[in-house]
Specification:
- This is Class I SAM-dependent methyltransferase.
- GO terms for molecular function: methyltransferase activity.
- It holds the Pfam family Methyltransf_11.
- Keywords: Methyltransferase, Transferase.
- The protein has a domain of 158 residues: 3-Layer(aba) Sandwich (Rossmann fold).
- Helices cover 23% and strands 32% of the residues.
- It is built from six helices and 14 strands.
- It has a seven-stranded mixed β-sheet with strand order 5-4-3-6-7-14-13, with helices on both faces.
- The radius of gyration is 18 Å and the shape is globular.
């Protein structure tokens, strides 16, 4: 894939920031990702992220680390953290920021290491792409967990993005797919990424998927707008 996300991150790190990332989605929404936000410090993070970082314990795998802001904070707090991302430029940025343990790979190719905390923030569960990939994801993630390990993830129920009818119900197009499966494309400095699917999970759907794959699941904290932080651990 064209690494436009990583290019934007590395540009910012190297002082070449001039514009933000534009996103296009299957919901016909055009939006932007402010690149400086990816470099936020702890006090600038949402409460859900702050809570997740406080709950981290033992050895930590930061999955989809991006610019590495979460990993950097944890490292500065004395934790043993590994920052993993499928963006080569993002991982280069993490190294430039001083993160000691970095891995450039996709999560399914990462093997033979185990951790006490697996962290998926900024809707990190989105990497699963589609709901029917959840079992594959959970099967692999189990191989990366020490006894007693925890998964900390945040996500959102995007039901609010669909039209409400006169009776207060929500009209969701019948596409045959789960409504949280969103197709995205990114653009940065006139270069567009390939299209990809990103998954948003309402809590009940996450809970059912977790239970059916041998995990306990609980909400740690609800956010301000349909978002939440959840903790999962093996039964």
């Amino acid at each position: 894939m064209k690494d436009v996300f990583g290019k934007a991150i590395l540009d910012f790190q190297e002082g070449n920031y001039t514009e933000d990332i534009i996103t296009f989605s299957s919901l016909d929404e055009e939006d932007t990702i402010p690149v400086p936000y990816l470099f936020r410090v702890f006090k600038e993070m949402p409460k859900l992220e702050q809570e997740a970082l406080k709950l981290c314990k033992g050895t930590i795998l930061d999955i989809g680390c991006g610019a590495g802001s979460h990993s950097l904070y944890l490292q500065e707090k004395g934790h043993s953290v590994t920052a993993l991302d499928y963006s080569k430029r993002a991982i280069e940025t993490c190294s430039l920021r001083g993160i000691k343990n970095v891995v450039y790979t996709d999560i399914y190719s990462f093997k033979n290491q185990k951790f006490d905390t697996l962290l998926l923030l900024m809707n990190g569960i989105g990497i699963v792409g589609k709901l029917n990939n959840m079992s594959k994801f959970f099967d692999h993630i189990k191989t990366l967990m020490n006894p007693g390990a925890q998964i900390l993830l945040d996500s959102s129920d995007i039901i609010y993005m669909f039209e409400e009818d006169e009776d207060g119900g929500v009209w969701v197009p019948d596409t045959g797919s789960y409504y949280g499966e969103i197709e995205f494309q990114m653009e940065y400095k006139k270069e567009k990424s390939d299209s990809f699917f990103w998954l948003y999970l309402d809590y009940k759907t996450l809970e059912m998927a977790a239970e059916s794959n041998g995990f306990n699941c609980e909400i740690v904290r609800n956010g301000e707008h349909y978002d939440y932080l959840a903790k999962l651990w093996l039964k």
